[in-house]
Design goal:
Elements lengths: L2 H18 L7 E7 L1 H4 L9 H11 L4 E3 L10 H15 L3 E5 L2 H5 L4 H18 L6 E4 L19 H18 L4 E2 L2 H4 L18 H20 L1
Parallel strand pairs: 1-2, 1-3, 3-4, 4-5
Length: 226
Amino acid sequence: MNLRKSIVIFFFLTVISILTAQPEPQKILYIPIGDSYTIGTGVAQNQAWPNLLVGHLNSKGIPIKLLANPARTGWTTQEVLEKELPIFESLDPNFATLMIGVNDYYQGVDAQTFRVRLIQILDRMTAKLPQKNHLVLITIPDFSITPAGRKFHPERTFSEEINRFNEIIKEEAASRRLPVADLFQVSKGMEKDPSLVCPDGLHPSFKEHLLWEETIFPTVFSNLKK
């Protein structure tokens, strides 16, 4: 075989290889929005459910990267609007989760104000996302059943009141056809199992974050596979 013929064959095989090569799937760029439950107060960063979720999705063939986690302990919907969403909007994510409201409730924000702020948050997030339905909402866990939670205003009916906020989350999600992952019931396990609660007696332990991720994962996986 002469040199010219070898070069032609090599070129032909190279072209065929390029034409038949499978393109790498586009990586999903993810930002979780929320408060202490999302940033993982009380556990290591890699033990928080958003980090667990990213690892789980990658293991199931969904290429995803955690761009940033701007959530902070104690933040309400107002801090989301003022401090988290500017970060979210500057980083161009194409997938997001939203888990907010526990501090609104605890700090005495009324249900109507919470709804108004939630609507503003959802409007801004869906306006930024290339696919508006690539936003998963997550309900508020029942912190009142934790050792520290039981000491807060024992005269209040925490579970019922938190559920009212969760109803608002579900209603606003339904009006936009956005999926919801419900953590309220699974969080109830913290009442009888001390290993599910951090030493502060309030925030979820790594074990509870694992349970939350297991609950959130099917909704997110289904959403991203569409």
